[in-house]
Specification:
Blueprint lengths: L1 E7 L4 H12 L2 H5 L1 E8 L5 H8 L3 E4 L8 H13 L3 E6 L8 H6 L4 E5 L11 H7 L4 E8 L9 E8 L6 H33 L1
Parallel strand pairs: 1-2, 1-4, 2-3, 4-5
Antiparallel strand pairs: 5-6, 6-7
Helix pairs in contact: 1-7
């Protein structure tokens, strides 16, 4: 059975979408994979209590307790590795990860970003899309590399930018698409891996 670990910082809406899809679509039976743990860098992350209620292992590791990013990432890796993950999914995990951490999980570390990458890496994506006069915005699921919001694009969802849009309105429409896109992309990855395993 392949284990999946999810990292969050806040409410965990994408984490909830992933867990819900795993349950509905029976990833364990269909893909030989299960979500086993949710880890947050913030103790007050609303998503943690929800994850606990689903029977998932949870942990908190505050980045404020560490003098450097490297020290935090090293301890985070120890927490993650307890679960021997096949995939580590970033779902609103608001930390820039060090190159060493990214290299440790090369090929297994996946993120969702609220823009149509390569456009608008970083923060304030919706405001920037509106200010740039974009006709469309959206979300991207991609493999994580040492360069922020780069890496192989695994899937995208597109939404129109409406003339009267404010950033929060656009963000809400994009988020609703994220909740469909992220689980679909992960399920596709798992199916491909199961297929490859069967042939090997």
């Amino acid at each position: 059975m392949k284990n999946i670990v999810i990292l969050i910082s806040g409410g965990g809406s994408n984490m909830k979408a992933l867990v819900g899809a795993a349950q509905r679509e029976n990833w364990a039976q269909r893909h030989g994979a299960r979500i086993v743990a949710v880890i947050s860098n913030k103790a007050d992350s609303a998503g943690l209590a929800w994850a606990q209620a689903q029977g998932l292992a949870t942990a908190v590791l505050s980045h404020r307790d560490f003098a450097t990013r490297e020290a935090f990432d090293a301890q985070l890796a120890q927490l993650i590795d307890q679960h021997e993950p096949a995939l580590v999914l970033l779902a609103g995990f608001m930390r820039i990860l060090t190159p060493g951490f990214v290299a440790r999980y090369e090929g297994r570390l996946i993120n969702i970003h609220p823009s149509l990458l390569p456009a608008f890496t970083g923060l304030n994506t919706h405001q920037r899309a509106i200010e740039a006069g974009c006709a469309f915005a959206g979300a991207t699921v991609h493999r994580v590399t040492a360069e922020l919001d780069h890496g192989e694009i695994l899937g995208q969802a597109v939404v129109p930018v409406l003339p009267a849009d404010r950033p929060e309105q656009l963000a809400a429409r994009v988020l609703s698409q994220e909740h469909q896109l992220y689980p679909a992309v992960v399920a596709r990855l798992l199916a491909r891996q199961a297929q490859a395993d069967a042939l090997s």
